[in-house]
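To close the chapter, one final illustration. This time we ask the reader to focus less on the individual chains and more on the assembly as a whole: which components sit near each other, and how the overall shape emerges from the parts.
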Amino acid sequence: VSAAYVLGDWGSTRLRLFRLVGGDVTDRAEGPGITMPGTVPARALAGRLAAWPDVADVTLCGMAGARGGLIEADYVPCPAAVDDWRNRRVRTEVQGVAVAVMAGLSDRSAIGVPDVMRGEETQVFGAVALDPALRAGDHRIVLPGTHGKWARVVDGTVQSFRTCPTGELFALLGGASTLTGDDKPGRGDFDQGFARGLERAGEATVAALFEARAARLLDGRGRDWSRGYLSGLLIGSEVAAQADGPVVLIGDPTLCGLYGQALTAFGHAHREIDGDAASLAGLKLARGTA
Amino acid sequence: VSAAYVLGDWGSTRLRLFRLVGGDVTDRAEGPGITMPGTVPARALAGRLAAWPDVADVTLCGMAGARGGLIEADYVPCPAAVDDWRNRRVRTEVQGVAVAVMAGLSDRSAIGVPDVMRGEETQVFGAVALDPALRAGDHRIVLPGTHGKWARVVDGTVQSFRTCPTGELFALLGGASTLTGDDKPGRGDFDQGFARGLERAGEATVAALFEARAARLLDGRGRDWSRGYLSGLLIGSEVAAQADGPVVLIGDPTLCGLYGQALTAFGHAHREIDGDAASLAGLKLARGTA
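The assembled structure is written out below.
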């Protein structure tokens, strides 16, 4: 009997799979996002698993459990302890291999305001598993991204969270909008724009967005400056509105670096936990390997 | 000698031309936005003018004066009186017809914050020409739109202004974003969503955006509700940040209606001036017809 198994995070834009034996990663694979046009989830997963014929079971988090995903899984309401979450996984089979799909979390702690996550909870619980300091007391764990999450974790339980779609906003405004405009060269680089955006963060965000364009037209700023400005303004505004003390950042190092700058500018301490490490630790917890 | 002349507003998405004799509009025409791919400004204008061979002169405002437009015109810095603005027009010729292109306005009244407009100043000066009550005292004139403008007009002079790219943000987020999502039917219409968005306006806007998606996933809301929610949240946030008293709205009646609801919700009086009437009055001023 093979001891090999697969852990994975299937998001809207990317599938990431890890093959493990015991506690060690022996191989990895990537695939298409689960909501990308033309993706048939069971077929896409079967295709990836074909390269690993000895795998006994698969554990997936993320949009794999969304409606229209591999199999729909619940949202566990906050406050959500790790066992509440683990017990709500659902099971299916893909080409004879047992697949467990983890639930997401939901939150209504702000009266009347619904919120959801799928996938980030795995990194949050993983970070708690990795770092004993997070198991007791009140912590703010932040996962920057397309739909960034600010989770309040108390004694290892996700008490509440709030989603900031800052990454999606930046992609839209920094892409095809009129705010960053054409490719004509101009003065200033991304970092200079970012610093200026941070300065204006905390003001009325929508009005402040327009400096990205006006500075190009009046002050000869280039597209890089303008994109940096939007990034600084949006990340800074998120941090100004959400941060209330020290923060643990989980995610891509470059993005965490930008959030770190914003947190420092607003006087909040921060440290980072590697996103892949947190994912793997959470998925091991999910499977019951850890 | 013909007394016929043309007044027009050439924006990024649309050209609007009026043929007049004396003070009366005798015909109108539309054409493509000046920055739309494939638009060669002089050729596009010549094509439209061909239908009116007796026209003696043309006066244009808007993006006609932008770099890459018909001919580049200045930005007149605020505070800008009507004569400051009229005197900065530039002249060119299209197929033998004299064309005057009006300047835009720029503002730096908030230290270090650049802002620009092209076209809206014509409606502002036009509104002042139409309405004697606006010629003295301190007024807030608001032109909702893709790049909405909040102008402070003191004794008929544009003292300062601020641009809110709320319309562009709504088009991006309400279009291809994940926030409003798919077309699956659900509970609630645009107006109900708008009312809920207004309720949440004034909170941290970026985080509040995500209710558009979470309410679809957790509460079965439909796309219309979700788009209404974004509209109410964005317009409400703009009004909450910018309004400091009574407002004169100029523009499209449907859009002005939404801004009117938001102003009422935040306790500010408002009245409307018709956008076409303001444009024409401003263009007549620009030409020296009024």
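Chain B has a mean pLDDT of 94. Residues 223-242 of chain B form the longest helix (20 residues). With these observations in hand, you are ready for the problems at the end of the chapter.
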